[in-house]
Amino acid sequence: MAVFPAGRFVHGVFGSDSDRVTTVAMIAYAEIASLPEALADTYAGADEAELENPFPDPGVENWRVPGEVSRYTPDTLYQKINGRADAFLQFHVVGLALGTYYHQSDSNRFIDVYWYDMGEPVNAFGMYRAEAPPESTTVSIGADGYETGGAVFFRKGASYVQVLPVGLEEDDTGVALKIAELLAARIEDSGEDKWALGVLPQQRRIDSSFEYIAQNAFGLAFLTEIFAAEYDLDEGRLTLFIHRAKDTADSGALFAQYGESFGKYGRVIWRDPDESRLIVAGEVAGMIDVVFAKGRYLGGVAGAEDVEAAKKAATAFYDGLTMP
Amino acid sequence: LTLVEGRRALSDKTLTRRELLSRGAGAVVAAGAAAAGGYLLYDPVGDAGLPKPSEAKLRLPNYFAGVDFPASSPRISVATGSEDRMEQMVRAAVGGLAPSDGMRRFIARDDVVLIKPNVGFDRAPQLGATTNPEVLRWVLRMCTEAGARKLIVADNPIESPEACFAKSKIRDVAAVEGAKILLPSSARFETLVIREGTPDPSKGEALGRWPVFYGPLVEATKVIGLAPIKDHNLCSASMNMKNWYGLLGGRRNQFHQAIHHIVSDLGLMMSPTLTIADGTRVMMKNGPTGGRLSDVKPGGELGRPTVVASVDPVACDAWCYRHLLGRDPAKLAYLELAHKKIHAEAVQGVNRFGERDWQKYDRQGLIVTTSV
Predict the structure, then answer these.
(1) In this structure, are residues B325 and B350 in contact, taking their beta carbons and an 8 Å threshold?
(2) Would you give the end-to-end CA distance of chain A in angstroms?
(3) SS3 helix, strand, coil % of chain A, rounded to 5?
(4) How many whole angstroms separate alpha carbon A183 and alpha carbon A77?
(5) What are the chain B neighbours of A173 within 8 Å (beta carbons)?
(6) Rounded CA gap, A94 and A115, in Å?
(7) A322, CA 20 to 30 Å: which among A138, A144, B326, B336?
(8) pLDDT by residue (tens digit) across B322-368?
(9) Contact B233 A86 (CB under 8 A)
């Protein structure tokens, strides 16, 4: 018997031939030690719950269900997607489960499934929207499902799923769609709180531009959990945003911080002459923001080029915003 | 552009507005350095498993030093074409640097050549996350034709190297072209001295001594970098200098905290014989992983598959950043940092180029373009 530690586990090799046991143990040690931690854990036999295979059998001839599931945490996600991990961390990713479907007779054909647990539906929405292409073929899978280049993407509840065929066979897209459908059926739809869509003005809104920014919105560290959408107005295209603070005091504090940022990084160019209305416009690096606080909401226009257009849109937004 | 993209466009995806504006738009480079200040990738106590300072003596040689390269020769050679003319593109790109010799200008008989593609992800080649295997094929073939005794293809992906080399098709091409693939293993890492003493973050320095995938370099006499041009979530673009990240070992994820320091240090660390940028399938967004064909644009902003050969990795990165990704090199912090670091060596007589301002070469007639 040979025993060796690797990763979080102690491994053992048993047999009657001591030389062979030693050789096998050395090979196993080298292989396991070279694996990323998450893979090594799977290889070694992690907890039963961790090893439960979440990936469905597509029931398509020659396609084999992933035999192993690699799991990554926020701390280990970089091991799989390297520098891209930070984008997911911005949206508070909780974990990634990765499985690969293999074609039994063609070793060049795989379908990788990346199943991200984003913790909350709003984070799944935010990350999903950040990556989605402007144009793609819509599919009826999960929410906002689409197919592009043979790969299928969807979100549902707190999940963001990418089904990526590696081969170029057209048939693989059909298998990818089947996998996505079956997987979506396994994911609980925990619902979405679409309050922001009801608060942002609806007229002239480009719905496909609606997005969520979890952290560091517009490069401002204090600005989190922002919903934004673009508007096709007579004055040009503008971006309106909204944040729902804890209470009026909180939104007022954010408004003050926003105003201070104008002074710090640019300049204040206008304040609503009615001092009871908290609306201020500022210019930073040639871009105009008009921000307001009303009740528990912080909103406004961001990144505009035309001061008057931004002021007009922001004040109209302010005036039309009704308190629940 | 979405709102976020619009904001990113302001800073060319290099810095957040806060970082940019807190220092003024004219001080972008300093901002990039300062934003990451405080991170030292120097390990005086050995918790990264580094040997004691006295044991770390290895330094990488200058692989360009032996190249007889006239000052009047083009420094950047651009070839545009199509997917079915990959051979012509690669030959034209390399040939543009040395019309009479082609690859023989760089590779001599009996050379052992390390080609370093980007094999960092287990993605299909069409997704542009890894080097186009067909570009690799013709680079390998040209090295063979030039008389190379041995070809080595190596990279150190964070995830399973076997899967990365297989799915990217790099393994298949290397095998057909007679190149040896070296996969990372602990025995193939050595601690290298990137700079003497403690790095100074205020100068944009990050690497002092660090474990490097040295196995492929042990017998290499020439080194060719072969990187795909792509968007990168953290440093705006992954190009030629960033490609050397794949040789690093240790806890390199922490490099993300000082990314511009690191990329420029990589440019300082490695002086390759030849730099070849793969602009055939440019990942324009969602980098460095991508995953959608819609993220990929053949030739990027040029609109035609492109291969760029250069003897100046910094200028090559700047050119690719401008023409393939369509972004402003003046706002990419690591270019300026690399330029300063390499220039400091060049003034001491080291034979290498590191010009951030690609337009300077253009004005001097040192950029050639070929359409095949």
Answers:
(1) no
(2) 70
(3) 35, 35, 35
(4) 21
(5) none
(6) 11
(7) A144
(8) 999 999 999 999 999 999 999 998 888 888 999 999 999 999 999 99
(9) yes
Residues of B in contact with A301 (CB under 8 A): none
Q: What is the pLDDT of residue A14?
A: 56
- In chain A, residues 8-27 whose CB comes closer than 8 Å to chain B: none
- Shortest Cα distance, chain B CAs vs residue A24, angstroms: 17
Q: Is the Cβ–Cβ distance between A217 and A223 less than 8 Å? A: yes
For chain A positions 169-208, those within 8 Å of chain B (CB to CB) are none
In the chain, the amino acid numbered B221 is T
Task: Write the single-letter amino acid at B362.
Answer: D
Angle at B266 between CA B260 and CA B269, to 5 degrees: 145
Instruction: State the Cα–Cα distance between residues B105 and B103, nearest whole angstrom.
Output: 5
Q: What's the rounded Cα separation, in Å, for the pair B238 and B230?
A: 5
Provide Rg for chain B, Cα atoms.
19
The ipTM (two decimal places) reads 0.71
DSSP structure class, residue B252: G
Task: Give the relative orientation of helices B313-323 and B333-346 as an angle to the nearest 10 degrees.
Answer: 160
The H-or-E segment that residue B229 falls in is: strand B222-232
User: Chain A 213-232, CB below 8 Å of chain B: which residues?
Assistant: 213, 216, 218-221, 228, 230
Candidate from A39, A131, A219 with C-beta closest to B16: A219
Residue A216's identity, in one-letter code, is N
